[in-house]
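Re: folding output
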Amino acid sequence: MKQPEIIKALTEEIDQGNLKYGDRLKPTRELAEKYGTTAQTVSAALSVMAGMGMIQVQRGWGAKVITGRKANIKLGTYLSANREVATGTTAWARSSGNGSKEGPTAVSQTVATEEDADTGIPAGTEVVERTRIRFDADGAPCQHKRTLVAVDAATLTPEGWTGLPPMMRPGDVTPPAGMSIAKWLGMGVTRVLYEINTDQADAAAAAALTLPEGTPCMRIVSRGVKDDGTVAYATVTSAPLRSSISLEIRDAEEGGVA
C-alpha cells in the first residue's frame, strides 16, 4: 500500500469503530506487514495523521487514537440570504483577493464510483461531470470544484431552449437573475444540503491544487435533493486547510430569513 491508502485504511477503522478513542495502534513493523509496505511508509502515513489531529505519536510507546468517528455538526437550516442572486453564485463567491479568477469548466460524461459515496449519487449512476479550478489573486490554485449531475437532470433544458442542454455545454451556465440553475432547469430540487469536513485530496484535486496526493484538504459537499430523496446533482469543492468558510444570515427585512 501507498501512504494515502494506509491513511484511508486506518481512517476507515476509526470511522467503523474498530479503532476507538484511546486505542493504541499496532507497532509500525506489524502495520507494515499488514499493509504490505515498508516501515518508513507507515511512519510517514502516521505523521500525516498526527498532523491531522487523528493520532498522537510519541517515541518509545508508539501511537494512539485521539479522535472519534467522523461526526456531523449541524449549523442549522436557513433560506438563501439573498434571493436577488442565484444561490450557486453566493455559495462559491470570490474571496481570494482582487484579480482572482476561475479556469474554464471542463465537461465529460462518466459513471459515479464508490469514491463518490458522500455525494449521495449511487455508484454506477451515469453522470455528467463538470470541473473547474479557482486561482487566487497571485495565481495560486486555491479551489478545485467538481460537480456530478445525474444524466436525467443534466439533459434538461429550460422552456424555449435550443441546442445542447446547458449542463452538458462547457463553460459557464448562467440562469436568469434570482433563479438557481436547478430551478431554471426544472430539476425538482427542494433542498440543498451542505457537509463540510477534512479529508485526503483525491488525485484530481491534488493535481489541480499542486499538492501531493493524500494531503489533507477542506472538503465541502453540496447536494441538490429532490422530494423523493434522490440527488439530482452534487458539488465537491476541495481547498487547502488554510481556507476558511463563511456564512451570512440576514434579517427578513434585509432580504433574507434569520
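--- second protein (sequence, then structure) ---
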Amino acid sequence: MTDSATATGPLSGVRILDLTSVILGPYATQILADFGADVIKVESPSGDIMRHVGPMRNQGMGHIYLNLNRNKRSIALDLKQEAARDALRRLGATADVFVTNVRPAAMARLGLGYDDIRKVNPRIVYASATGFGARGRYAGKPAYDDLIQGLSGIAAIAPQAWGGEPRYMPLAIADRTTGLYLANAISAALFHRERTGEGQTIEIPMFEVFVEYLLGDHLSGLTFDPPEGPHYYPRLVSKHRRPYATKDGHVCALVYTDTHWRNFFKAIGREDLLVDPRFSTHGGRADHIDAVYAFVADTLKTKTTAEWIALLDQADIPVAPLHDIASLFDDPHLNDVGFFRFVDHPTEGRLRMTDVPGTWSASQPAVRSLPPNLGEHTTEVLREAGLSETEITAVLGEKAPRG
C-alpha cells in the first residue's frame, strides 16, 4: 500500500463527501478512491448497512463492506442533529464532490440538497444516485437491485436461456452497473468543471441506466419501427450458450468468426461443413444459432478439457477453463499480474484483497489504505474542516463513534 499523502492516482487532490451506502454508491466511490480521490465516507452512528452482512470477524466489518470501502476515511454523524448537519455543510465547503443515494426530497428536508451545498461551495459537483429519474412518475420510489432487475426485463429474459421461472442474476448487476456509470459521470463532471469553472448537480437513475445497459443487446428487432425480428438477441438467450461439457468437465469456448469456424472444422476433420449454409456465413450462423451451439456442444463432449484447450489454442480459437470462485485464486494470469494480495488489517487481521485493475504509465491508481472502522476518522476530518474541539464535542456527543 502507498501512503495517502504520496498518492499519484489521476484524481489525487480531489475530495469527495460520500453519503452513499449499500452497494451502488460505495462501489462508485471506491473506484474514485482507487483513482486517488480523498473519499470521506459519511455514515450514521449505526454505520452502512453492509457493515452488518456476514461473514465477518468483528461486528460492523462484514465482507461486502470490506470489499467496497478501501481507500476511504469514515466519519460518523447523526444527521438528525442540527450540529451534525452544520458540520457537514462546512465539510461541503472544502469538497469537490458531494455524492448521495438518499432520496433528493429527504436531502432537501435536511438542508443538505444541492441548493444548500451550492451556497457554501458554488463549484461543487453534487451527484445523486436515485432509483428513478425525477421527471418520471416513479420518482422518489425505493429501488433495489432485485426490483430493477425485474422491472428492467432481465429477470423475464432468463427463462429464454435457462428455462423455468423468471429469476434474478446471481450478482448485484444493476447496482454495480449503475455504480460504474455514476463514477464515470462524476469524473466527467469534474472534467467539465476544470474546463469551465462550473459546478453542477447530476442525477444518475438506476432504472434508466440499467434499461439502457440491457437494451444495448436486447432491443433487437424493436430497434426498427415497425419491428423486425425477435425482441431479444437470439445468440445471448440460446439454451446452448453455456460452458461446454467435455469428457471430464467443462470448457468455455467461442467459435465466432469465419476464421474461427474454418480453423475449427479443420481441427475436428469436418471441412465438409464449410459449405453448409448454417455455418458458412455469420448471418447463417445467427439464423441457426441453436443448431450451431448444439453442434459445438456435441463435438466437445468427445475429448477432455485439457485436450480441447490445447487443440483450440493451437487453432487460435478463444478458449478458457471454467473457473469457480475458489479456483480463480490459482489462475496463472491473475497471479502473473499480482491481482490478489494479502494485507494485514489493523482490526480484521489477514485479508485477501483484489488489486486495482489496469496499468497507468503516469498516474497509477493504488490501494493506499484499508477499509476503515466506523467513525475512525471523524475527529481528524472535522478538524480539517476547521471545527474547534468544543464544536466537535457538540457534533458528536458522548456516544457517537469517533476517531
